[in-house]
Fold this protein.
Amino acid sequence: MEIIPVIDLKDGVVVHARQGRRDQYQPISTGLCNSSDVDSVIRAFLSLHDFSTFYIADLNAITRQGDHEPLIQGVLSRFPELTFWVDSGYQRYGQHKGRPDNYMSVLGSESFHDETTGGIKAFGNNFILSLDYSLTDALGAKSLFNNPDLWPDHIIIMTLARVGSHSGPDLDKLAGFCRQYPDKNFIAAGGVRNKQDLIDLGEIGIKQALVASALHSGHLNADDINNLQTKKYPDESGYF
């Protein structure tokens, strides 16, 4: 199981995301990191584990209230050894031409309409798709949810209502995607509380999960993370 720490940026600082209520998000101040400065948060995550990939949500860009373009560019240059998956709202192919190699676009369904999904084809397989849900309702371009021709190999299943909710991941939804599309890599996002949640995700075929609150709270600690890196899960036949 690969854990991908999440960084939510709003108005220049890292905020604590809770259930998709973005107008209520407050700057991060936790036992792991008492600073909402993005570099400090990244270093705090790295103090737990040698993570190689981080996810950044530019909430201003997603809600069309400006963006964090200069700040993200700085992060990319200051941490060249890390890979950053970046959701900055609606993106067109070539918009970020010249980005360094450690940048990967995340295209979230909530930022697209059915009439704008055609532009996704230009990305080929060089992006990560995020299929966004409130709780049960699909957000954004509905055609993205039932048209695998537009899907890359790696797809986030994001349940915003579970983010920071301590309610656990949506195992049923994730298991359904894994069964229906076994050739795709689905990434869990929203609700991960602890090591057991990640074990449960691994048992349904999930190999990666986006996590923030459990890392900040200490409910997922360094020993847990190290143990999860080495745990094996059964394949479809039930054998390890």
Remarks:
- Residues 38-48 form the longest helix (11 residues).
- The chain has one domain: 2-230.
- Strands lie at 2-10, 13-16, 26-27, 53-58, 83-87, 103-108, 128-133, 154-159, 185-189, 208-211.
